[in-house]
Amino acid sequence: MYSLFKLFLVAFPLITLVGAHSPSRYLPITVGSRSTDKTYTIQDFYQGTDFFNDWDFFTGSDPTGGNVNYQNKSSAESKKLAYVNDSATVLAIDSTSKVAAGGYRDAVRITSQKSYNGGLFIMDASKMPVGCSTWPSFWTVGPDWPYGGEIDIVEGINDQTKNQMTLHSGTDNACTIDTDDSDQYTGSVLNTKCYSTETSDSGCSILDASTTSFAYGFNNADGGVFALLWDNSTGMSMWHFARADIPSDLTDKSPTPSTWGTPSGFWSAKTCDITDNFYDQQMVIDTTICGNWASGAYSKSGCPGNCTDMVANATNYVDAKWVINYVAVYE
Ligand SMILES: *[C@@H]1O[C@H](CO)[C@@H](O)[C@H](O)[C@H]1NC(C)=O
Ligand SMILES: *[C@@H]1O[C@H](CO)[C@@H](O)[C@H](O)[C@H]1NC(C)=O
Ligand SMILES: *[C@@H]1O[C@H](CO)[C@@H](O)[C@H](O)[C@H]1NC(C)=O
Ligand SMILES: *[C@@H]1O[C@H](CO)[C@@H](O)[C@H](O)[C@H]1NC(C)=O
Ligand SMILES: *[C@@H]1O[C@H](CO)[C@@H](O)[C@H](O)[C@H]1NC(C)=O
Question: Is residue 150 annotated as part of the catalytic site, yes or no?
């Protein structure tokens, strides 16, 4: 998400290693296996009228070069770009103002005040932002990028139909996706090296297999749940569940992720030094417009015209909004 050079991934999204997976020598996860059976306990449950008390509104210019004016809390609330409706949290892009081609639309990017060093991170949303030129994301980031690392749980652009999950590691090259363990995730690998720098920051990505994991497919399923399990000794696992498939133990707030089946994405601690590369992560929820990735990939998408012109099309942003039932962190 930090991404100056997401262009790379987009230019070559089909050159994946999927076809190159060697027949899997399946190994059960043995490292720290006891922790994998753990039932997690709720730490923080972000929902309802208090939601925004625990998040800060980012007001700088978009580091990814997007055509957005990020709003502070009072402006976002008065412009109805950030509000709680019933118990759902809505984060929207301005879809009523006249903005010139290449101009900047009001938008919202929020960061959790709390930072974390492991656990199970959940977002339950009924809608996510959709539309050509949009770039929604739910991610976590540590201090002093790239050293504290970055974990992109939900991300994609334009007319993308499947969720792209990515890690960015900072300290060295000791973090890759273990393609020998490819039956430990159901998604397809786009790039194996997590090491990221300011000038080369694709990170290591896995594309979800399901079209209910992103954009219109996600919204048509009444959304669902995205989960990140960060376990230092096992690795990083990510799941997406369409609403009808949400595990009952999660609904009951007593999740045991080892019962959830193969994750969509898995970054094994066997090939990634998790503790070295990821710490003090704050959660971020964002929607930007165009920017390096969405505008760079725009002409290769099925979207009409160009990204610069699309910014002027207010009605394009009517559904560019998150409707979030809750965000939770379990430890
Ligand atoms: C929020 O932004 C508005 C519009 O830019 C500005 O007038 C206001 O002073 C800001 N409020 C705070 C608390 O920074
Ligand atoms: C508020 O929530 C209700 C019930 O979910 C929904 O019908 C309505 O469209 C929402 N309104 C806004 C402005 O988000
Ligand atoms: C994971 O490793 C980090 C970095 O060493 C550490 O701060 C954290 O406490 C560890 N998390 C857990 C849950 O043990
Ligand atoms: C976008 O397309 C319009 C024509 O519809 C053109 O005038 C404009 O220069 C294009 N902008 C960019 C940045 O390519
Ligand atoms: C404006 O956006 C709407 C909704 O995405 C789309 O149907 C329409 O074709 C767009 N108009 C132009 C001129 O691109």
Answer: yes
- The structure's pTM equals 0.91
Binning pLDDT at 50, 70 and 90, where does residue 267 land? very high
Residue 159 domain flag:
yes
pLDDT at residue 274 tops 60: yes
Q: Based on C-alpha coordinates, what's the Rg of the chain?
A: 19
* Domain assignment of residue 1, yes or no: no
Instruction: Provide the pLDDT confidence category of residue 121 given band limits of 50, 70 and 90.
Output: very high
CATH number for the domain spanning 192: value is 2.60.120.200
Q: Cα(192)–Cα(196) distance, rounded to whole angstroms?
A: 12
Given a cut of 50, whether residue 126 has pLDDT beyond it is yes
Q: Ligand 1, residues 74, 81, 97: which to mutate, most atoms within 8 A of Cβ?
A: 74
Residue 300 CB neighbours (<10 A): 11
> What DSSP designation does 180 have?
G
How far from each other are the two terminal CA atoms of the chain, in whole angstroms?
25
Structural domain includes residue 10 = no
Distance of CA 276 from the midpoint of ligand 1 (Å): 38
Euclidean distance between CA atoms 122 and 253, whole angstroms: 11
- Residue 313 CB less than 6 A away from ligand 5: yes
HSE, CB side, 13 Å, CA atoms: give it for residue 258: 14
Give the residue numbers spanning the domain of 134: 34-330
Tell me whether residue 157 is in a domain. yes
Q: In whole numbers, what is the pLDDT of the chain averaged over residues?
A: 90
Verify whether ligand 4 is closer than 6 Å to residue 313 (CB atom): no
Total number of domains in the chain: 1
